[in-house]
Amino acid sequence: MRFDILTLFPKMFSSPFEESILGRAIEKGLIQIRIINIRDFALDKHQVVDDTPYGGGQGMVMKGEPIARSIEWIKSEDPSARVIYLTPQGRPFDQEQAQALASRAHLIFLCGRYEGIDERVRDLFVDEEISIGDYVLTGGELAAMVVIDAISRLLPGVLGSDRSAIEDSFFNSLLEYPQYTRPYDFRGSLVPEVLLSGNHLAISQWRQREALKRTWVRRPDLLAKAPLSEEDRRILKEIQGDKSTKDCDCLARRNNEG
Ligand code: 4FV
To answer: Who's near 196: CB < 8 A, 6+ residues apart?
Structure first.
């Protein structure tokens, strides 16, 4: 899969894509990432890429021409490439969108800066707008990294075993179950016995129950769109009826303790 990134700060991408899973995916040729400096497409001798907003107001706006020429340069090679603009005004990014985008061959990420880009670039060149959250960043670069990471780990061969992407949080719209590893006794806190039982049915039932409990306590909004079985609904009733459920969730407890 090919990712082209349009940015005014190419060096921001050096290390994130050299390390760990993404770094190996690039080495294995599973993903190709090209960092393109929009300023290289500014024609004037000072390579100006931004200007003051029409109608006045604070800050600067990124000019249309350098962005348009950078997109046209990429599309001259591959007209099917899809242009994604990272912006707080975009569709909230989620796992479902990551899965949808993972089926594409070539994505172009447009990273805004300052007050954003000239509106006409959106009308003429942008296919999709994504927001990684309701807060304002200094630029779209970090958002592009987040989206590329979430997509790449869904591609065959990128994660150790593709199975782990299937067991993700949100894969079935539920939060993930608690994880434990050695030692058995950590600061006096022991690993739940069922996990040492070797009884795989009991272990998966415990994990599903914990995932349902954690989702109900922390993100009840997710339950609404989770594909729940009759058994899940029965367990949920039990959990919701059990007064101690909320207390057993360390985070919920700490949050309540404030
Ligand atoms: C953002 C977000 C974001 C807004 C002004 C870049 C900044 C600056 N992008 N999700 N939240 N972008 O805050 O994607 O141009």
So the answer is: 184
